[in-house]
Amino acid sequence: MLRTFVTIMESKNKIIHCAQDLFTRFGIKSVSMDDIASKLGISKKTIYNLLPTKYELVTKVILSHIEEEEIVIQDIVAKASNAIEEMIGITRHVHKFLKDMTPTLIYDLKKYYPEAWSNIEDRHFSFIRSIIKSNIQRGIQEGLYREDIHSEIVAKFYTRLSLLVADEEIFPTDQFSRHTLFMEQITYHIHGIVNSEGKKVLKDWESKVNGS
User: Fold this and answer.
1) 145: β partners
2) Of 76, 101, 109, 177, which is most buried, counting CB atoms within 10 Å of its CB?
3) Confidence (pLDDT) at 205
4) If you average pLDDT over residues 14-20, what whole number do you get?
């Protein structure tokens, strides 16, 4: 019985990860259950036995992606040597997460799968806000951030700015490189919260990145 359960979960995970890849590349609306079945070399009936509707599949894909991202971010937090290094690592990864959320994918989620999109806006970005608030407290304790920061406001600024930077209608990829956008966001954000000691740490990092 346990082996059967494990087999079912492994099959579900394969379907979810295949669907995630196809949704990211082509959008949700244009990818059918037939496309997913064909890609995996299984019957559509097999998919429906495990995930009865496309809506359920989309929800599972989004939740799985969010859970994976949150594990990675927690690992970044655990390994960072200071608050500034942590913030840089978080921002780099948030950019990657949002880059994977292509305009077509976001459009399809908002229009056809609003509950799945709510999982991103409500759950994931609530998680990001809590991580940023914790980072601010860490930075203050380490003597790198200003002590008068309103962490709740700054954390909300951060998440909304991240979404703005990822909007390709505002920042088309043929005009703004992802690296440039990342560098501008991270310097804009950190310069607003560091104290004089933090500026030294940030300057050291910028020198390494710029190769000087």
Assistant:
1) 194
2) 109
3) 84
4) 93
**What confidence tier does 8 reach under pLDDT thresholds 50, 70, 90?**
low
Q: Using CA atoms, how far apart are residues 132 and 152, in angstroms rounded to an integer?
A: 9
Separation of alpha carbons 7 and 4, rounded Å: 5
Tell me the two tokens of residue 120: 């991103």
Alpha helix (H) ranges present in 113-150? 114-118, 125-141
Query: Radius of gyration of the chain from Cα atoms?
Result: 20
Supply 113's token pair.
Answer: 């799968």
Cβ–Cβ under 8 Å, residues 44 and 121? no
> Rounded CA gap, 142 and 145, in Å?
8
Q: How far is CA 149 from CA 2, 110, 177, 193, in A?
A: 51, 33, 30, 7
pLDDT number for residue 123? 85
Between CA 165 and CA 158 the distance in angstroms is 10
Higher pLDDT, 98 or 85: 85
The pLDDT tens digits of the residues spanning 92-115 come to 888 888 777 777 888 888 889 988
By the 10 Å C-beta count (0-12 exposed, 13-18 middle, 19+ buried), 5 is classed as exposed
Characterise 143 by phi-psi region: left (phi > 0), alpha (psi -120 to 50), beta (else).
Answer: left
Neighbours of 204 (CB within 10 A): 11
| Three-state DSSP class for residue 145 | strand
The residue type of 91 is T
Stretch 122-142: mean pLDDT, rounded?
A: 93
